[in-house]
């Protein structure tokens, strides 16, 4: 089986608790928005879709973290998510953000599969 990977961004584009990088993924026949951030040195990627309502999270393109850089925040109604798991920690959301598998190596962040 051939595993195809797609470069999302260079590793140095993601500062710890800094701006994320937006990208798109295929889900069935749809192309949907997603994003990747770095938190405690690790990269984490999710669909850019709040669990409260199907809205994108970032308040400006790539701005996902709260002011302290500790939580991901939805700009619409303030849902709070853990950056490393996507689990809802506060606000009107339930459940978790949909995780996307990514891999970081050789100075790049790649979308798996
Ligand atoms: S749409 Fe995200 S908190 Fe309501």
Describe this structure in words.
0% of the residues lie in helices and 40% in strands. By secondary structure, it is mainly β. It has one domain (6-111): Rieske [2Fe-2S] iron-sulphur domain (Rieske Iron-sulfur Protein), CATH 2.102.10. A four-stranded antiparallel beta sheet has the order 2-3-4-8, with no helix packed on it. It has a three-stranded antiparallel beta sheet with strand order 1-10-9, with no helix packed on it. A three-stranded antiparallel beta sheet has the order 5-6-7, with no helix packed on it. A hairpin with a 6-residue loop joins strand 5 (72-73) and strand 6. Bound molecules: FE2/S2 (inorganic) cluster. FE2/S2 (inorganic) cluster binds at residues 50, 52-53, 55, 74, 76-79, 91-93.
Q: Give the CATH level 1 class.
A: Mainly Beta
Note the total helix count. Answer: 0
Walk across the major sheet and give the strand order: 2-3-4-8
Q: What is the molecular shape?
A: globular
Which ligands does the model contain, each kind named once? FE2/S2 (inorganic) cluster
Strand content: 35-45%
Kindly summarize this structure in a few lines.
Helix content is 0%, strand content 40%.
List the helices and strands and how they pair.
Elements: E1 6-10, E2 21-27, E3 30-39, E4 42-47, E5 72-73, E6 80-81, E7 88-90, E8 99-100, E9 102-105, E10 108-111
Antiparallel strand pairs: 1-10, 2-3, 3-4, 4-8, 5-6, 6-7, 9-10
